[in-house]
Design brief:
The chain has about 90 residues and is an all-beta fold. It has one domain (about 10-89): Sandwich (Immunoglobulin-like), CATH 2.60.40. It is built from no helices and 6 strands. The protein has strands spanning about 10-20, 25-35, 35-45, 55-65, 70-75, 80-89. The strands form 2 sheets. It has a 4-stranded antiparallel sheet, with no helix packed on it. Strands 1-4 form a two-stranded antiparallel ribbon. It is elongated and about 45 Å long. The two termini are about 15 Å apart. The relative contact order is 0.36. The mean pLDDT is about 90.
């Protein structure tokens, strides 16, 4: 993604996980930071199916209310799994 978005805009994070049948994970979180300061943390929980597909989809939305550089980090415990940044003006 390039360019900036307006402060106050809502940004959605779409996530896809491969989860073993019967697997469950409750130690995931999506953390939003503005200019290096944590502003929001959302706990995420994944429960694998008892049969069938191993793919698990999830979406969460955050309103980026202030101007600056926002960073979203997907964490499992203290380990960073993924991250992306968004610029607001």
């Amino acid at each position: 993604m390039s360019g900036k978005i307006k402060a106050g805009a809502k940004v959605s994070a779409h996530m896809v996980f491969l989860v073993p049948v019967g697997g469950a994970y409750s130690d995931l979180s999506l953390q939003w930071s503005l200019n290096g300061t944590v502003r929001s943390t959302k706990d995420l929980e994944i429960k694998g199916a008892t049969a069938g597909s191993m793919r698990y989809r999830m979406m969460t939305t955050e309103a980026l209310s202030k101007v600056g550089t926002w960073e979203a980090r997907l964490l499992r415990g203290d380990k960073e799994l993924a991250k992306f940044t968004v610029e607001t003006e």
